[in-house]
């Protein structure tokens, strides 16, 4: 991640998608407008409605828009999510999936002092989905661990720790059973760690980690792990801090980055203007940090935190009755 402002004006790809994706995107752009930073938005179409309109859920033109932008903000897709977001991650080689797990006041968070980042490898492991034909006995799936991809993600985790004043990186694996593949992951972890003598290291088996996330979540700072384990643990993390409406994420590649809330298009509440836009706004905070706009990121983060602290204007998922745009207005007024 960059640590200082990289440009005077940034080209940002905006892909609102379907359902509440469009609503939380509108609210977020409204708030970004209150910051002192110059954006050039280029809109891209994707998702269920796009499929109906154009015959494809992810037009090549949208991929080009994302490719040519400094960063992309993505709302949510509906039933076509796999064809849209998974394909974008693959096409753009977005190898790192970042899922922060942070507790906020006046939410359903189970703990008060949680603040860690899960850095998940996004391109290989179990999710190459290389399943052979059914065999006589059942079925077989292959799991791929390469030195190149694991070095890259582990190095990313240590750099993230340094750039974000974290003191420790925890490797999560199952090397006692998967001796070759996770044995290699573990070996690479310590090789990379030797380049970062100021960052402490720790390793746990994934099953133990699933428990420690409940018994001592405050002790984690940065977790780095392979694809499937990262997917599972990050949903556990979401459960810890209570509620999809609050959880942002980033997908980072060498030349492209996409920021999106973890939630989907929420057809059950879409069109009512009541979706919580905070997950999308926190995704924008991550984007601001990525492009090096750290002061603006801090400012937006603080404005969101103040709304949660005040607890006067909250959407219904947080027990309030405010609309999406009322909450956005409150955040903008706090900037
Ligand atoms: P979902 O995340 O859309 O909704 C799950 C539940 O959480 C719903 O009750 C919804 O109302 C609530 N919720 C989600 N975000 C909220 C917000 N910001 N404010 C208030 N409440 C919120 O997941 P679901 O229902 O499993 O999937 C709905 C559609 O979204 C499906 O078509 C699915 O394929 C798609 N999807 C897309 C994703 C993406 O684009 N990255 C990710 C997950 C699902
Ligand atoms: Mg998942």
- Overall, the morphology is globular
Helix content range: 40-55%
Low-confidence segments? none
Which ligands are bound? 1,4-dihydronicotinamide adenine dinucleotide, magnesium ion
List keywords for this structure.
globular, binds magnesium ion, two-stranded antiparallel ribbon, 41% helix, binds 1,4-dihydronicotinamide adenine dinucleotide, Isopropylmalate Dehydrogenase, alpha/beta
Explain briefly what this protein structure is.
Helices cover 41% and strands 21% of the residues. The protein is built from 11 helices and 12 strands. A hairpin with a 4-residue loop joins β11 and β12 (257-261).
Description:
The chain has eleven helices and twelve strands. About 40% of the residues lie in helices and about 20% in strands. The protein has a ten-stranded mixed β-sheet with strand order 2-1-3-12-11-4-5-10-8-9, sandwiched between helices. With about 325 residues, it is α/β, with parallel strands linked by helices. Strand 11 and strand 12 form a beta hairpin. It has two domains: about 180 residues, Isopropylmalate Dehydrogenase; about 130 residues, Isopropylmalate Dehydrogenase, CATH 3.40.718. Helix 5 packs across helix 6, helix 7 packs parallel to helix 8 and helix 10 packs across helix 11. It binds 1,4-dihydronicotinamide adenine dinucleotide (NAI) and magnesium ion. The site of 1,4-dihydronicotinamide adenine dinucleotide has 22 residues, from helix 1 and helix 4.
